[in-house]
Design brief:
Largest sheet: 5 strands, mixed
Number of strands: 5
Distance between the termini: 9 Å
Radius of gyration: 15 Å
Number of helices: 4
Structural class: alpha+beta
């Protein structure tokens, strides 16, 4: 089992240029690229490591997806916080990809199962579950799944 930050992770990261969206590619095809906790080097923002980045070349879109599981009474606040936190990164990605639509999509589910009603609308921006599942299988060593 590989642990996050191990030698193999460092070697993998060293092989890929750090100033591109490929820095932490989990899944890549001709049309879509999914990155898990990829560090995006950018001098404009310190917040540069979202949970997922989904780049769709066909639709010319980049979605910054941040998940959170707060106490149920903090759902709305956490939703707002995630959008504010990653807005500078969205602006930087838009600047480097002017032909792409860039959006921050927080997926917030309360600790006791309450969810933000915006999650339903936002889920249409996410890649299909089968694609996310495929990406998760590639991440199992880093996420410590068995």
């Amino acid at each position: 089992m590989t642990q996050h930050g191990s030698e193999s992770d460092t070697q993998r990261d060293a092989e890929v240029p750090q100033n591109t969206l490929q820095a932490g590619a989990v899944y890549q095809s001709d049309t879509i690229e999914i990155l898990h906790e990829a560090r995006i080097d950018n001098a404009l923002t310190k917040t540069n490591k979202p949970d997922l980045i989904v780049k769709n070349r066909t639709k010319k879109s980049i979605k910054i997806i941040e998940k959170s599981v707060p106490y149920d009474n903090n759902i709305v606040k956490r939703d707002r916080d995630k959008i504010e936190k990653y807005q500078p990164l969205a602006a930087a990605l838009k600047k480097s990809n002017p032909d792409h639509n860039v959006a921050v999509i927080p997926i917030i589910i309360g600790a006791f199962g309450t969810y933000n009603t915006d999650n339903q609308r936002r889920s249409t921006y996410c890649p299909p579950p089968t694609l996310l599942s495929k990406a998760a299988r590639h991440q199992r060593p880093l996420l410590h799944f068995k």
